[in-house]
Prior knowledge:
The complex is a heterodimer of chains A (279) and B (165). Chain A has 279 residues and is α+β, with helices and mostly antiparallel strands. Helix content of chain A is 37%, strand content 19%. Chain B has a domain at 1-81: RNA polymerase sigma factor, region 2, helix turn helix motif (Rna Polymerase Sigma Factor, Chain: A, Orthogonal Bundle). Residues 80-102 of chain B have low confidence and may be disordered. Chains A and B meet through helix 1, helix 3, helix 4, helix 5 and helix 6 of A and helix 1, helix 2, helix 3, helix 4 and helix 5 of B.
Amino acid sequence: MAEPDTHDDALLTAYLDGELSADERRALDDRLHEEPLLAARLERLREGGEGVAPALAMLAGSAPEARLRAMLAGQPVDEPVVRAPVEKKRRPWFVLPGLAQPWRPAAALASLVLVAILAGGIGYGLALRQAEVPAERETWLQAVAEYWRFTTAETLALAPSPDLAASQLQLASTALGLPLAPGTITAGDAPFRGAQLYAFEGKPLVQIAYLDPDYGPIAFCIIRNGASENRAPIATEIEGFSVVHWQEGGYGRMLIGRAPARHLDALAERLKAEAGQGA
Amino acid sequence: MRPSGHDDVRDALGDHLVSLWRFALVLSRRRDTAEDLVQATCVRALERADQFQRGTRLDRWLFAILHSIWLNEVRSRRVRAGAGTVDAEIALVFDGGKAAETNILAGQVLAAIGALPDGQREAVLLVYGEGYSYREAAALLGVPVGTIMSRLAAARERLASLKDE
């Protein structure tokens, strides 16, 4: 097929968006009757816009509204109205903590972000920089646990298509520099529910979700943290979740869910064995 | 008597937190940055409440403040801090076909929107997300109406081509 003529795209878009005057609209209607290629172009642009508004509405639904409200409520009520001249200088508590020095890990409030990137974050990958993060640095285990609170059986109801699953694993695998083939990270028999790539303090972090028929959502997370020592699995509890975490070959790993610790322990053994097989 | 629309501004901020956050997220593509941007917007709007002109739309005013902070302070600082490479990585993640767990189609559309160039993303958000007219979007972004039109056209074409794949 020849290159489509995109000459009238802006006009067609304005037509679709109801931005043309009545006269312009009539004129374009006439042309659309006469010119099938133009009509086809209109159809393509219409398709391009399909689903955009609902997707953006869904995005709004994932806003951390409670946190935003708390932030607003924390703004001083009786701030004196300062007249113009002083305006520019004053910014003592105008903090954009993570931004001034985005990658400096030590700043107390700054870094603690499980960066779920917009799309990955749609809905559930909430950034976790909380106003009340303690002064000590949050560990990646805590960050994942905070985030995992937002995952429910409902949010994992749909299985990704095999293609999507493969591309997610491929992306995750590339980012980690670790092979993650389907079938090598089975975590028992719980159905696979997708792999998502995040970053924690600039380190790639992959979260692989499963929906256990008995215990609900379980995540297997891997971070490339470069830590040199190896550590056998340790069971603990964070944010009310069972967590089993271990360290091997420069990668931190954790299992998290509402399953009993012994169940996660068994999964950890299995995952270690699977990783040991090399694939 | 309070000298300004301070209370009006505070109320309006409460009403528009979510849409401000969404705008901030679409601009920055980072949730941490989005929250910081909303906070900065609140601070700035409350500081300048006396500058708000009654009779004009408060939500537009707040959006303009947020956009200006993004453009003049946050984005430039990140670029100077060398965060550009990180952005490239983020764009890659966008392309990775992240599926929203609840709604795979919407997730794909959002991923595609996330991969659009800055100018297209902001136009898409304002016009298709917030219902701005072209003229209003142009005024907010400080570009001609024709630019809004062509950005939206390019965005639609790009989104359509992603659906082909």
